[in-house]
């Protein structure tokens, strides 16, 4: 690695060595989504598309998603893209805010390498969703810049 190379992203075994397990993932998901639901930018989207009576099921599904993604548990079997494609108001402001709040949450709750792993994975997921949503909407993606990082207040 040279001086100009980005920091390597930790692998799951490094995060597991720091304590990453299903309980940590559950804590991250529950803390993040409690804050997200009250957030002035992304909260209205969550409240409009995930009613109260489906909120716990949503948390369980997202916990399974992160467990599958970071620990390889294979518990997640959903298809998140169609649900996100159906949210017509979803835009880059929502993605930036989601990522800022997520970075804040994992930085507060997780050891450094684990937080870095969550952050890297969330940023890749957000970019993939943006590209798929943009393609579905017929947007020109050729020169679309990556999301900029928004600070969390």
How are the secondary structure elements laid out?
Layout: H1 12-18, H2 22-38, H3 43-49, H4 52-71, H5 80-85, H6 92-109, H7 112-136
Helix pairs in contact: 1-7, 2-3, 2-4, 2-6, 6-7
GO molecular function, one term: metal ion binding
InterPro entries: Globin-like_sf (IPR009050), Globin/Proto (IPR012292), Hemoglobin_trunc (IPR001486)
Organism: Salipiger mucosus DSM 16094
CATH architecture name: Orthogonal Bundle
The arrangement of helices and strands along the chain is HHHHHHH
What helical percentage do the residues reach? 55-70%
* Rg of Cα set: 16 Å
Number of strands: 0
Give an account of the 3D structure.
Keywords: Heme, Iron, Metal-binding, Transport. This is Putative hemoglobin. GO terms for molecular function: heme binding; metal ion binding; oxygen binding. This protein is mainly α and 153 residues long. It contains 7 helices and no strands. It has one domain: Globin-like (Orthogonal Bundle). It has helices at residues 12-18, 22-38, 43-49, 52-71, 80-85, 92-109, 112-136.
């Amino acid at each position: 690695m040279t001086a100009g190379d980005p920091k390597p992203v930790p692998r799951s075994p490094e995060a597991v060595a720091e304590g990453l397990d299903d309980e940590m993932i559950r804590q991250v998901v529950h803390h993040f989504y409690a804050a997200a639901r009250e957030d002035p930018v992304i909260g209205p989207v969550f409240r409009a598309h995930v009613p109260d009576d489906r909120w716990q099921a949503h948390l369980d599904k997202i916990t399974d998603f992160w467990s599958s993604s970071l620990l390889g548990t294979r518990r997640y079997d959903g298809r998140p893209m169609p649900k996100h494609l159906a949210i017509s108001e979803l835009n880059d402001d929502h993605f930036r805010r989601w990522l800022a709040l997520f970075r804040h949450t994992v930085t507060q709750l997780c050891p450094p390498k684990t937080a870095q792993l969550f952050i890297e994975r969330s940023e890749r997921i957000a970019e993939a969703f943006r590209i798929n949503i943009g393609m579905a909407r017929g947007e020109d993606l050729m020169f679309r810049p990556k999301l900029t990082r928004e600070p969390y207040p």
